Amino acid sequence: MTSVVDPRAAAPAPDLPKRQSRVWKKLRRNPAALLGGAVVLFFVLVALLAPLLPINDPTATDWLAVRQAPSDKYLFGTDEIGRDVLSRMIWGAQASLLAGVVSVVIAVCLGVPLGVMAGYLGGWTDATISRVTEALLAAPFLILAIALAAFLGPSLTNAMIAIGLSAMPIFIRLARAQTMTVMTEDYVESARAVGLRHGALVTRYILPNIFPPILVQATLTIATAIIAEASLSFLGLGQQAPAPSWGSMLNIAKNFLEQAPWMALYPGAAIFLVVLGFNLLGDGLRDALDPRDT
Amino acid sequence: MSAILSVRDLRKEFVTARPLFGTPTVVRAVDGVSLEVAQGETFAIVGESGCGKSTLARLLLRLIEPTEGEVWYHGEDLAHLPPERMRALRRDLQFIFQDPFSSLNPRMTVGALIEEPMRAHGIGTASDRRARVADLLTRVGLTPAHADRYPHEFSGGQRQRIGIARALASGPTVLIGDEPVSALDVSIQAQVVNLLEDLKDEFGLTLIVIAHDLAVIRHMADRVAVMYLGEIVETAPADALFEAPKHPYSETLLAAIPVADFGARRARPLVEGDPPNPIDPPPGCRFHPRCPYAQDRCRAERPALSPAGEGRAVACHRAAELDLTGLGDPTPKRSADAERRFDLYARALAGAVPTNNDS
User: Fold this and answer.
1) Which residue from A4, A236, B88, B253 puts its CA 20 to 30 A from A30's CA?
2) CA B359 to CA B344: how far, in whole Å?
3) According to CATH, what is the number of the domain A28-50+77-288?
4) B149 vs chain A: nearest CA distance in angstroms?
5) Residue of A15, A194, A203 for testing the chain B interface, max B β-carbons within 10 Å
6) What's the pLDDT tens digit per position in A36-76?
7) Block means of pLDDT (10 residues each) for chain B, length 359 residues?
8) What whole-number distance in Å separates Cα of residue B236 and Cα of residue B245?
């Protein structure tokens, strides 16, 4: 709570800044969010600029330099068949970021509307959506993703769809529960009393008020999705070898942890940083979008 | 004056438990209420917590669906209208909520909140609406500059003013307030009550106010309905009710009003204990277990709300024979000494006696 405004003391309004710029202003004042944004931006740039950077071919093998420690020639070392870890990291950024972000976008775009429908309409709609969601949740996340990816056929795109669909039930449940909570608020009743149509009620009252926990869940799910892509790659269902992704690099590196720890260190650190970046950015965005938080 | 809202035998049952076998547990929150609200009056519904008055208010505007009964407004039965027609009628029928802290969407600006009813009903152009928002803000004692702020930046009283501005935006004819001031500080309550009365005159509204605070009601209302356990036990013009209640429960409510006079100590409350469980209301008159005047007939036979002259109606078997106490003479009782001092003071003010005290 901030200070209370006296009705008589307020001067005539100087044109207040628009909502967008207010959000941006608050985001700018939040160093953690800026750091998160910078980290995410860095990896996105790396992923986009991969073809232009002066680096080795990520799939070229060098049998004379197998599992070499980081050196001047190979800054991040080489892997078990002599490929440059740095190049593979940079090229793998694309696959991993896509796998993380696109699958979460799929999960949110499908899960949130379904969850809001279930929570808002209740009755048979809710019963149907909830039972199907529970059935999906009964299968472990990864098993479901593997089954779907196997069904769709091996490719990075299909892996993203499979991961997105597997992550969707969490968002359905979250959106449904949040919607039901918000529906009991007086302000939703006031929207009905005013005579608002359902569409306006959902977009102006429900969605903005259920948004914060969904944003947090989404940033966390990005990490899960990146790792899930790794597992699918390992099974040959995600990024197709020899094209790199952080997850598949990590998966192979775990066999060589003692002999070549650098093989695991860099992709692991990259996943950690990206997830941290998305989390910080997501938290900052959530706070910036909340008018109550100054 | 003609009735703008007529309620016939309105009922609302809530199922509190539905076992797999056996009969479900049902609470009759509103149990056969009939009433008429005249155009332009302030109609108050009073009763203690849990008597169903908030449920009744929501039923009137169909914010919850009635189990049974009719609510007639200009020849249309609100309780059975198709949803789209009901939505359109909400332009005329608006609601003020009890809690100003939870009834405004925290993610909308005050301007957007007040404009929303006009947008919902397609009233005016965007610039018309903005002008009206500014006008409404001024009418309720805020300034147009407040339109760009968010609800959390305001105090409770100011938020309630925002809620009132929002309720007025679509140009309603009937305004229902569910305890519109009970969540506010006492010092703010009077301001908001006065504001409501001013706006009522200005816009020619019919006001229905739900309250448990009889002091507020006495100040505002033209007519009062007293509710007990989902039923109306007495309706009367406000003055008549406060002066001489005809139902023992009304008498009890009046006796519970605190009196702010020196030495004005009231007799202990006429009635003690809580109202009976509405899941299992007592047979006969629902008030009989707590009623000091109850007789055998009250325990067996349920009294109907029947006319009692002078625009009054009461649901009590003994209404005609009982002589119940109202608030009576509002002038305070003072001791003889106090009376003398007040007298001296009054004469001093008038310049009749020297101001130095020589007694």
Assistant:
1) A4
2) 11
3) 1.10.3720.10
4) 9
5) A194
6) 999 999 999 999 998 888 888 888 888 887 788 888 888 88
7) 87 86 86 91 90 91 92 92 93 93 92 94 92 93 92 91 93 92 84 89 92 83 92 92 90 78 58 75 87 87 87 89 73 73 82 56
8) 9
What is the C-alpha to C-alpha distance for residues B248 and B253, in angstroms, rounded to an integer? 9
Residue A122 phi, psi (nearest 5): 65, -160
CB contact under 8 A, B103 and A190: yes
Select the residue from A8, A181, A186 to test the B interface by mutation, using most B Cβ atoms within 10 A: A186
* Nearest residue of B to residue A289, measured between CA atoms: B107
Q: Are A267 and A250 in contact (CB under 8 A)?
A: yes
Nearest alpha-carbon partner for A166 in A182, A178, A152: A152
